[in-house]
Each structure stands twice: as structure tokens, then as C-alpha cells.
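REQUEST FORM: STRUCTURE PREDICTION
Request ID: SP-0412
Submitted by: Lab K.M.
Chain count: 1
Length (residues): 455
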Amino acid sequence: MRLRAVLYQAMAASCLIAAGACGSESDTQDSDTPATGGAAASGGSAAESGSAATGGDPATGGFGATGGEAMTGGQVATGGSVTGGTSGGGAGAIGGSSTGGLPPTGGAPPTGGSPPTGGLGGTSGDETGGTPTSGSAGASGSAGATALAGGGGASGGNAGGGGADTGGNAGSPSTGGGGAFTGTCTESEPAGTAVSGSGPHAVIVETNSDAGISEGTIYRPADLGGAEKYPIFVWGEGGCSQDGLSNATAMAEIASHGYFVIADGTPNGSGNRPMDRSNMEAMGAPLLAYIDWAIAENEKPCSAYYQSLEPTMIASNGFSCGGLMAQGTITDPRIVTWGVTSSGMAGASQAFYDPIHTPVLFVEGGPSDMAYDGGLEGYETVSSLGVPVLWFSKDIGHGGDLFQSDGGDFTRINLAWLNWWLKGDETATGKGLLVGPDCPYCGDSAWEVMSANVP
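STATUS: Completed
RESULT:
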């Protein structure tokens, strides 16, 4: 392993990359095109120095509980005029007084009938047109938005709770007005983009209009709801572009190996986020909002992602200016590991490094990469903190082979790092690819590999 650093090329000298003196960065590669060997990036308007990040709503921890939508189980059954003592059928309304139809007009008052399935039976509430009845306890809450049906319930009493969750997914039994989960869900929509990777999972690309995710693009395994739980990985685009398909090849590759990926920006979106290293909270806010949203969705029975994610295994990374977004997440205690891809920390103060407490990965494009020096500066300082840190660099320019098939070696290294720290993989698809005698990069003279504090 060796350590080397070079001066920036003259064309990049006027602006230190990755939040240097001028606080801005641009990229040439904001779409899936091959790396051009370090040409100055032009992926959008440069991040303005000193301006706070404006993208993404602040993390809200998901939607506040609203008590759920009152479920009526359909229209209150009237049953017509009940004659001869037959009780009014139909479902009782949750949480309100049910009249059970017109009062009996000539027979004995209702005697309770079979209790409604999906909730507690009527419990001597007010009845119009008959004597209060007292049904026995009904069965536990039924799945989804099933009405409180099931026989002629007590036609007068207040129907006890027990409605299932809104949204149609099975919920836990309830003992009060409303289901076990009281929030709401917004269904994700296909992005209309076909992607794939080399992993065992088919990949779906989606968007969602919820406030916490509306500015992001989701790449996730098609098979949800099984035994496998997917770690969460958030990504910032080159140039801080708000095109969520900018690094689609790399994101699909990672998702295909069992990760729930959220890239900043919407599919084919426009514009760029301004970045300012002096405002760490604003830098990481969009990515942290995506994490908040994903964790909240994992707890919602009405969500397609319910109990399919691993909310304790979360990582961040980003290309070029997007690496600054990942750096903005480092103070969040939920982040297990983070890294930068063709990005760095030129001119960062000690105050930036002080909160770093988790493993860090650097993947750079060699001396011809405009971010190389800033990355090297970051690696050397992080190495002194005692946290595990790895450095991989090959002189193939800014972005390296990130845009090639399956995301190239840059993505292969990033994926192995995630497998190691988020899935405990120490084989040739995880730690073994990055350190030790079987590391293919470590003995390759084309690669510059360094490490510190590695367990």
C-alpha cells in the first residue's frame, strides 16, 4: 500500500473540490456516460458558497398519529322496517351510535343476535326502538378494511372499536375506536424505468409523493414481505443533481443485492442542491429525511414496505458533490457507516471531523480525479481518529467506472463495504474483497489501496 498526492490540474485550481475554499463543486457525469478521466464536471449549477441546502423537508419522524380514519364498514344497514322481531342486520359504525335501521314496529325488541366479527359486540349502548342489548365479545380484528360485518349484531348499542387499519393490510386487534396503526400510507408509483443488477433480486424503481420522500427515487428488491430484511442506503448525486436516475446503473446494482436504496432527486429531475460545509445540518437533511420516511414506512401495516426493512442497518454515500451530502449525515447516530465516491474534504475544519464515529470508505479516481486531493486530505485525518477507514483509488478520472455495466469496480467496492458493515459478510463479497490475502485490488499495481484501524 502506498500513499501519494498530487496537485490539482490547473483548470481545477480555482475551486477546491468537495467544499473547498469556494464551497462549490460541479460534475461532468450526471448521466450514465463513461468517465472522461477527470474532465471538469458540469453536471449543473455549482453549489453556491454559504447558501444553506434548500432541498428536502426536515426529518419529521414520519406522520403523526391521527387516530386513523373512522371506519364505517360501509353504510349503516337499515334493513327496512323490521317486523316480527327480526333485528336490523348490517355492520355497526365504529365509534358512534348505530341505529340498526328503523325501530321494530310490531315484534319483540332485538335480542343481540350474533356479535359482529372484527370488534367488540354492542355493550348496552343506546338503542332506538328497542331494549338495549348486550352482545358477547366478538372475534379479534379482521384483516384490512373489512367492515364490521358478520350476522345481525346488536342493532342499538355503540359498536365497540376493532376496525382494522386503513389501507387494507392486516393489523393487530384493537380495543378502541380505530385500528392498531393510526397513520396513513401513500402508495408508491412505478418510475417507468427498467433496471437490473447482477444480484439475486429483481429491482423496481419507484417514486412516492409523501413529503419525506417526494424528492427522492427508490430502488428496491421486487420481493418484499419475506424473511429477508433489507438495509437502507441513501445516495447523493454528482453535482448535487436532483435527477434520481443520474447513477441508476450503480443504484440498481446495489439494490439487486438486497438493499433498499434511495437516491436524491426525482427521475429525470432538474436542478441542483447548493451545498455549504459550514451548514452540516442542511447538507445532510435530504438524505436524513429519506431515512426517517423509510423507517416510518417499515412500521406501517398499510405500507408495501411493512416489516421488510432493517432499520438498524443504515449507510450513506454519494458521488462528487453528493459525497458532501453523505458527509452531512455523519452526526446521526443511526448511520452505521458512510463513504464518499470521487469526493473529499478539502479545507474541512477539525469541527467536521470531531463527530465521526463510524467506519469510512474512500473510492477515488486517482490523481486525474479533481476530488483526489480533497479525498486524500480526508483519509489522512480520519485515519487519526481511530475509526476503520479504507482508501481505494485508480487513475481513471472523476467518477471512475461508476457508469459502466453494473457500476464498475467503484460500485463493486462500495457494495462489498456495505455487505461487510451492514450484513456482516466477511467473504469474497464483503470484507474479503477489500482486505486480506484474497483482496484483488490490494496486489494490483493499478490500484492505490490504504487502510487504517481495520479490525
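NOTES: Helices lie at 248-256, 280-298, 321-327, 350-353, 372-383, 408-423, 431-434.
Reviewed by: T.R.
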